[in-house]
Design a protein that fits this description.
By secondary structure, the protein is an alpha/beta fold. The chain has 2 domains: about 5-170 and about 215-240, Rossmann fold; about 170-210 and about 245-280 and about 300-315, UDP-galactose 4-epimerase, domain 1 (Alpha-Beta Complex), CATH 3.90.25. It has 12 helices and 16 strands. The protein has helices spanning about 10-25, 35-45, 55-65, 80-85, 85-110, 140-160, 185-195, 215-225, 250-260, 270-280, 285-290, 300-315; strands at about 5, 30-35, 50, 70-75, 110-115, 115, 130, 165, 165-170, 170-175, 200, 210-215, 240, 245, 265, 280-285. Strands 3-2-1-4-5-8 form a 6-stranded parallel sheet, with helices on both faces. A 3-stranded parallel sheet has the order 6-9-13. Helix 1 (about 10-25) packs across helix 8. It binds 2-amino-3-ketobutyric acid (AKB). 2-amino-3-ketobutyric acid binds near residues 79, 117 and 171.
């Protein structure tokens, strides 16, 4: 069975990707790596967990060697809104972790998954049915890192034969762990706030369309792509994937149909507003569908039902 190392395992994606990978590859074949001590401690209750700074090439390399790793999932990233507060740090962390992952994947012959994002696109990208191959001139440092990462990952594949694969994640909606520092975070936060307080203040404009994805589809996409027949992949870094697109107002109106007492208002963050306006409204994901069978299961209504159910349980247990 393959040995998998998840780097940056304590974030929104990692928290749910680790148990998903354990189901696919076996509990003892997944190693969760994190830089924050308290998160390593929490992870260690459910899996093999180690402290690892992805920017420390030597320490990272020792872990890859020690565990005989076959596949690395590099989830280390400062997200779009946070990145704008400190562009130098965003470049250092996002590109540093990627470069170390690429060089170690090359040295130890590992496959490598590093998510890209809708953030790789910018204002002059076509916003309707954004094609797989199109203009990519992002307006954020996060997007600059994502485009650079896509190019570098394709380069390592072509030049050195490293098995790099990736998807452009839309905003991911999940109930495992709150996201932090992203432009799409509102679509997660609102569920907890509506359950706990019955109201929500949104920092993204009411009419900003963005692609979103429910976590179970995001997890499925990740392992499906990494297990796909390489002969069928025309693209590698990175595939558009999409399942639903909506504005804050549309989401809130749908939630209100289930919870009529829900109220909301807007206090727009200009940085997030500019980022949201520069991203696609809806992407064309036909290459992912054709090349490796991407086929999302979750739509807006199912997602809302599930999110409300799980958030209610969490709030009741005092977990939020
Ligand atoms: C963000 O909003 O920065 C992320 C993303 C879409 O990559 N959730």
């Amino acid at each position: 069975m393959k040995k998998i190392l998840v780097v940056g395992a304590g974030g929104q994606i990692g928290t749910e990707l680790v148990p998903h990978l354990q189901k696919v590859y076996g509990e003892d074949n997944v190693i969760a790596a994190e830089v924050r001590d308290e998160v390593v401690k929490k992870l260690s209750e459910k899996c093999i967990a180690i402290k690892l700074d992805a920017l420390d090439f030597q320490g990272y390399g020792e872990a890859v060697k020690k565990y005989g790793v076959d596949g690395i999932y590099n989830l280390v990233a400062l997200l779009s809104a946070k990145g704008e507060q400190n562009p130098d740090l965003a470049w250092k962390i996002n590109m540093g972790a990627l470069l170390n992952s690429l060089n170690l994947a090359r040295e130890f012959k590992c496959a490598l998954f590093t998510p890209s994002s809708i953030g790789a696109f910018g204002s002059n990208t076509p916003h309707q049915m954004t094609p797989q191959d199109t203009i990519m001139r992002p307006d954020t440092i996060y997007g600059v890192c994502k485009v650079s990462g896509e190019l570098l990952s394709d380069y390592y594949f072509k030049r050195f034969g490293v098995d790099t694969r990736s998807v452009r994640f839309p905003g991911i909606i999940s109930n495992g762990c709150l996201p932090g520092g992203g432009t799409t975070d509102y679509a997660v936060e609102v569920f907890y706030e509506v359950v706990k307080n019955g109201k929500y203040t949104c920092t993204v404009p009411q009419d900003a369309y963005m692609d979103m994805l429910y976590m179970p589809d995001a997890l499925e996409a990740t392992t499906q792509l990494m297990e796909a027949d390489p002969a069928k992949l025309v693209h590698r870094n990175s595939f558009n994937i999409a399942s639903m697109s909506f504005t804050p107002e549309q989401l809130f109106q749908e939630i209100k149909k289930r919870i009529p007492s829900f109220t909301w208002d807007y206090k727009i963050d200009p940085v997030k507003a500019a980022i949201a306006a520069s991203w696609p409204d809806v992407m064309d994901d036909s290459c992912a569908r054709n090349e490796w069978g991407w086929n999302p299961k979750w739509g807006l209504q199912d997602m809302i039902t599930d999110m409300l159910k799980v958030c209610e349980q969490k709030v009741k247990r005092g977990e939020y």
